[in-house]
Amino acid sequence: MSKIKTVFQCQACGYASPKWLGKCPDCGAWNSFAEEKQSPKTLKSFGASEPQPLSRIIGGKEKRTAVGINEFDRVLGGGLVNGAIILIGGDPGIGKSTLLLQAVAEIAKSQISDTKLQTPDSGLRTVLYVSGEESPEQIKLRAERLSIDSDNIMLLPETLVENIIRTAEDLRPSAVVVDSIQTIYTEELTSAPGSVGQIRESAAKLMFFAKRSEIPVFLIGHVTKEGAIAGPRVLEHLVDTVLYFEGDRGHPYRILRTIKNRFGSTNEIGVFEMTDEGLIEITNPSELFMSERPLGVSGSTVIATMEGTRPLLVELQALVSPTTFGMPRRTSMGVDFNRVNLLIAVLEKKAGIHLGGMDVFINIVGGLKILEPAADIGIISAIVSSFREVPIDAKTFLFGEVGLSGEVRAVAQGDARLKEAAKIGFKKAIIPKGNAERLKDNFGLNIIGVKDVEEVIENIRI
């Protein structure tokens, strides 16, 4: 018999070492190594295949099935793809299980189109919901709160991946949900569930099952303190789509963001509101994010940002106040902290706004995170507005990137941003001069193109 090897694996990245190490040489994590036993057994492949010329391969659009929740279908790229494996991560209690329970309820209501997938209720789809954390009674309580009751949602309390696959092969459901992947283990490894080896091997087996059977599989994953999905990064490479469920517990709004998608665009978002009756889709998030915007106050402005293909208008707030300590504070929520420091330096150097003795606080209202640099002139405008105690016109919005020389650079999809703002009721737009020169329509807006930070400050009348 082959001997079982014992190795130490980093629980953050999966790096293996024959001895224990205090710091991982690959990812730099401290005290992350755990002892694991490795079995000599290997996963079975699909079988031998022959190479073939690309010109002889018949192409075609992938088969998609609409989930029935428009915001969910948006982030998936238009619906579920047969055989896709989808990883959903998020903080504990953010609403991952609630979202997927609502999703499988919608799938179970739809008519079946694939004759290979048999269902107990003729003509309707069946979904297999595998729970490794909660009992069927706990899931039933959540379903009653969400007003979900269906004979086509099959609950399976199981943690052994071989049993899950065997059950799915017998049932032939339209989709499988595994909640959560950290609780699933395989008999081929002797390490504990949740370890790097178990997560990787269990996910690989489920991936092989999904590709072989063309049944989509959802995996729910926990996240670490740093916000990354727990387990090795190889888990994200195995799956077809990675979704992150974001949101502040102090706000009822939740953002479902696409990080990776082999069947659609990335950085798409879906917006939901958490209520007592579950998650409700937000069809017009721009109006929602600005519904409680204060008028006539300094330090508040509106920026036009793009999340995937969706334009969003969000309120950006800044508070500038004299510091009581020797070192001024810089705090940002929803935007990159280093980006804010860079823009403060540009303001001091190029516009003569001295903030060395001021605390600066930046916040994106609604719990949204803005990653693109098009928010730069919005950040600068809000800081100067708060510094001078002069409000910005409520019907004015901005977008544009700021360089280290104080120049304002053009950004992509300017027309989509302007169209969205005009639909909501804005009248004035301050945008990069490069965008203004390429516009095909002004959408009824007073458009002002600016080329540097000085012109931004001048045109917002502060």
Q: What is the second-level CATH architecture of the largest domain?
A: 3-Layer(aba) Sandwich
Number of helices: 12
Biggest sheet, strands in spatial order?
8-7-9-10-6-11-12-13-14
Sheet with the most strands? Answer: 9 strands, mixed
Percentage of helical residues?
A: 25-40%
CATH class of the largest domain: Alpha Beta
Give the distance, in angstroms, between the N- and C-terminal Cα atoms: 79 Å
Extended strand count: 23
Number of folding domains?
3
Rg over CA atoms, rounded to whole Å, is: 26 Å
CATH superfamily of the largest domain: P-loop containing nucleotide triphosphate hydrolases
Strand content: 25-35%
Question: What name does the CATH topology of the largest domain carry?
Answer: Rossmann fold
* Uncertain stretches of 5 or more adjacent residues: 114-122
Mean of the pLDDT scores?
A: 86
Quick one: overall form?
globular
Structural class: alpha/beta
Q: Would you write up a description of this structure?
A:
- Helix content is 26%, strand content 26%.
- It has 462 residues and is an alpha/beta fold.
- It has 3 domains: 5-38, no CATH class; 64-283, Rossmann fold; 287-459, Ribosomal Protein S5, domain 2, CATH 3.30.230.10.
- A hairpin with a 5-residue loop joins strand 20 (401-402) and strand 21.
- Helix 4 packs parallel to helix 5 (196-213).
- The longest helix has 18 residues, at 196-213.
- The protein is globular and about 70 Å long.
